[in-house]
Write a sequence for this structure.
């Protein structure tokens, strides 16, 4: 913490060796230094910034930004080192063993007969996925929970200083967005995600899927449902599925037919669309499997329902699938797969 405070000293009145009449900005910086030393909040100082003249605000921003990058980068370097330490050596080896065991538990259920599988999904598969999320999806928050008191104190200071800088930018109506704190949080998360052991090609597929969804105007709820499935597949060691907009179209059409014609079945009463294979062909693609769900407008609810149903579960986590489409209409969902 003291290192942070020392970095602020050059901004304070009289430190440069030249005594000058105190300015409003000097008084605010001096008060900021005192509050930081005493661990006192300074929301009132941020409010005072709006009372400064534009010229004073501009000077304050210029002075503050002489030290802000160093303050920010000093903290982020400490955070990065802590994150790397937590994901290396004996800790990493222990994580790798736990990941392997959790995946083995999951797949031992996936290959069961559907009768005994239903209870095993709740007892073994769901806890395995929850553990794999903890092990394979690091976050800035998780890293800080494990980190010692010093790093957390350092972070508390930099968040306060970032909030003060954002206050300056807002008061000055600066061209730069007031995102000092948001950028720190984003960089923490970027560091954490960089340490994930999720398969890199799968992550690239998920990134490409977002672009496909945008280009083909796939509804956001459908895109999120596909991404949630792919994340689970990567967690358990399977490939991520490529988003097929044509399968989304076929799925959406079947969901709409079920809702408007009041049926719930893989077999449609609509001529030429009786089977999922026919429905896929009408949209210019092919399909190797289909799941259907009704009862919620949320994609997470559909995925949860399919996850807990043995036949649907087997479809979701089949190693043979390469493509996926998801289609929603009201509270009806259809999920289609392709090889």
């Amino acid at each position: 913490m003291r290192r942070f405070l020392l970095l602020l000293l050059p901004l304070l009145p009289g430190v440069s060796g030249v005594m000058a009449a105190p300015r409003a900005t000097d008084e605010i910086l001096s008060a900021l230094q005192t509050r930081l030393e005493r661990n006192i909040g300074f929301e009132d100082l941020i409010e005072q910034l709006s009372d400064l003249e534009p010229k004073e605000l501009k000077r304050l921003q210029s002075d503050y930004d002489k030290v802000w990058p160093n303050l920010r980068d000093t903290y982020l370097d400490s955070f990065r080192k802590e994150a790397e330490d937590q994901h290396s050596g004996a800790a990493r080896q222990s994580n790798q063993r736990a990941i392997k065991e959790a995946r083995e538990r999951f797949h031992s259920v996936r290959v069961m007969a559907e009768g005994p599988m239903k209870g095993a999904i709740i007892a073994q598969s769901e806890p395995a996925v929850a553990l794999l999320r903890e092990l394979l999806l690091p976050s800035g928050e998780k890293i800080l929970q494990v980190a010692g008191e010093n790093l957390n104190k350092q972070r508390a200071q930099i968040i306060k200083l970032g909030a003060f800088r954002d206050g300056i930018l807002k008061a000055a109506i600066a061209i730069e967005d007031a995102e000092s704190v948001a950028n720190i949080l984003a960089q923490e998360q970027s560091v954490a995600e960089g340490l994930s052991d999720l398969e890199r090609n799968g992550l690239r597929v998920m990134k490409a899927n977002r672009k496909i969804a945008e280009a083909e105007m796939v509804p956001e709820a459908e895109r999120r449902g596909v991404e949630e499935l792919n994340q689970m597949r990567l967690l358990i060691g399977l490939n991520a599925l490529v988003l097929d907009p044509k399968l989304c179209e076929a799925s959406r059409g079947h969901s709409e037919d079920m809702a408007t014609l009041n049926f719930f079945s893989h077999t449609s009463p609509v001529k030429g669309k009786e089977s999922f294979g026919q429905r896929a062909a009408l949209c210019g693609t092919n399909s190797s499997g289909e799941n259907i769900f009704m009862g919620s407008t949320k994609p997470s609810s559909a995925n949860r329902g399919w996850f807990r149903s043995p036949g649907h579960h087997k479809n979701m986590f089949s190693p043979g699938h390469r493509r996926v489409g998801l289609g929603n209409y009201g509270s009806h969902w259809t999920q289609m797969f392709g090889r």
About this structure: The first helix runs from residue 2 to 8. Confidence is low (pLDDT under 50) at residues 1-6, 11-22. The first strand starts at residue 242 and ends at 243.
